[in-house]
Amino acid sequence: xxxxxxxxxxxILGFGFALxxxxxxxxxxxxxxxxxxxQRTAYAYDGGRITEAQLLQANQDVAFLKEIYPPLxxxxxxxxxxxxxxxxxLLVRLAEDAGYVGGPDDGxxxxxxxxxxxxxxxxxSYFGPDLAAIASQRDAMxxxxxxxxxxxxxxxxxxxxxxxxxxxxxxxxxGVLRLYEAxxxxxxxxxxxxxxxxxxxxxxxxxxxxxxxAASKVTDETPxxxxxxIIAAFDEFKDxxxxxxxxxxxxxxxxxxxxxxxxIPRSGIADAVVLDPVEVNAHxxxxxxxxxxxxxxxxxxxxxxxxxxxxxxxxxxxxQRAFKGVVLQNTGRFETGPDGKPIPPADWAERxxxxxxxxxxxxxxxxxxxxxxxxxxxxxxxxxxxxxxxxAALPVVGxxxxxxxxxxxxxxxxxxxxxxxxxxxxxxxxxxxxxxEPLIAQGGDLVFIRVDAVRPESPPASVAEVRxxxxxxxxxxxxxxxxxxxxxxxxxxxxxxxxEEAMRLRGVNTILADMTVRRDFFSRTITASEEDAAAxxxxxxxxxxxxxxxxxxxxxxxxxxxxxxxxxxxLAVVAAVxxxxxxxxxxxxxxxxxxxxxxxxxxxxxxxxxxxxLESLIDRFNVVGVxxxxxEGDDGEPLTPDAGPDHAADAG
Length: 652
Known about the structure:
By secondary structure, the protein is of the alpha+beta class. Helices cover 51% and strands 14% of the residues.
């Protein structure tokens, strides 16, 4: 072998050198032929392109924005959550072309400005039109956010990003916000229009009000609807949810279940525990450091309570173990679905054990293991189809809870998490199968459940199923029409005898006293659609605007202060008497006008007109996918049909 290498060493060395050159130069040659993948065009648009490197930078920017201020990306800036990188890259390019993006120094100095903008945003979101509250918290909120932003900047730098890169990202944020501000500043309002909008937003009236529900007027004397009327109502509303149809009518059956359960009262277990007096005394003597009494008789109630609780917990643990064992014994041979959950056989409903049998087996096994004669668990059921609110209203068990993950889950939430009812199945409940884990009701009672049958949301099969409800609805509608015809009569009665007496004569004894009203606000609940409620508010405020603000409202004629109105959505009639008016003062106008101006600016941000939505930018610049598709998200997965955010928050 050595002779071979000596003879051909020059050839071997030459070949080896050539091979090394190929290995060294090949990647560079391939790179020159194929190109740097970071410079590959991800998207092209009129007059430019977005490379993979720029898209990566955009996604890094967005990640930094979320770290600085979580609501910033999707909430405030309105970035599409499915394609944040593309959306941000287009916005930055637009802001750069308009000259709104500065350098690192601009980014570094913008932190305080960003804090002021977002503080105003947070306070307006929380306090609404309460200008005094916003003013009182503005400085503190701004300082808090400024500190948080500085800390986020420092963390980004400490995690490996350069100071220049971080500050340039901040500069891009400020530039995009300047872009938004420039657009929003195109709005203008005349002094008269600004005054009108301020008056509508802040002028206030204080009223006493009453509501007469037509349902309270239905009696045996109310005419019965005809069969044709019943069938017509059924046909019109059988596919409509309750509360969503005309007058709130709707007969679409909600998701519902048939449910049965075992109830094991903790108090019954405690009563079954018999303590040995000798063991009680021995426990007291062995734990004198825990008991502060001077004698056994003084400490005995506490000692017995602790020992009884300990025995009760032991019995409960055995009951849980016994029930789970019985359930698994019956379901152990089930086939398993793709999600890993057991699938009951087709005939399971016919051969599953009765809950009364499960109760007996649990009782026997628990007694065998503990030696305590526990009370027989109560096997209970409800023959009705139970909607979610019905389950929550069940006596004793309706308030039961179970921990799923680390979160307490109520009985109704657990039951309606079934996939058959449109739930996510997170609770692990299986229709037709006893749930092996207990829920705990108030007082520590154990509750084991089984959903025997499910009924998804569906229209009733026939008129007969909802006849009683239809008849009652039509009778209520009849009484409402009578009430609506008498609105003028009600108003006159209030003028003559006052609101409280007029309502009492009509069977209403509850008055909503001292209710604050603005064009967009009731301080008390009025049961009606927003359309009807808005009409009632407008009628009140129109009356208030006609009153003399220099004279107390109660000194002005009651006829000028009464409002009565029919509310078809609630099948009711409402009435109010104005007691006080609070017009917009010059001081309030000066304080509120900026907020009104901002509200006018917000009108530019409607989903149809906001020009900075991703879809709008794609259409505007004729963006096309090159190495990436417009139909895939940042993660490369196909986009879901869910829409992104409609528009950004007010940027100024």
